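Thread: "does anyone have the structure for this chain?"

Original post by V.I.:
We have the sequence but no experimental structure in hand. Need at least a predicted one for the grant figures.
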Amino acid sequence: MKRRRVHYLIDRKMQLTCTARFLVITVLFGLFMGFLAYVTIWPVASAFIPKGLIDLVKHQIFVRTILFLIPAIFVITGFGIVVSHRIAGPIFRIKRTINDVVRGKEVELIRLRKKDEKALKDLAESINKLMGLVKELRGAPSRPPQ
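Reply from O.Q.:
Generated one for you, tokens below.
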């Protein structure tokens, strides 16, 4: 079986923008949930911590949060790029096919991968039907102007 090279950044600007937005929302949500847990639990937990250790415990909570966020950012970024690839790939293929049809080139039907977004598969199917009509009209004898 022939292996094809996969380029995950097909539309670099769109994919990185979507990934960055997803990353910001996820990190902000994580920080908010961490803050909410801290505000909820700290008043109870601080009653059992000796006064001399409170600053150390707060520092440890902060450091561990940051140490958790760093790998999480890499995982979320990778996930965002893979997910956006499933959108950018079909859009690139559809745009290229439409441009080829407009230029009058013979084109094959649009075929998308199994894991590509369903809505884009439906769009590709509709465009394939439209290309069939265009091919039919181009093959029909031209009518004299009336």
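V.I.: this helps a lot. The mean pLDDT is 84.
O.Q.: and The chain has three helices and no strands.
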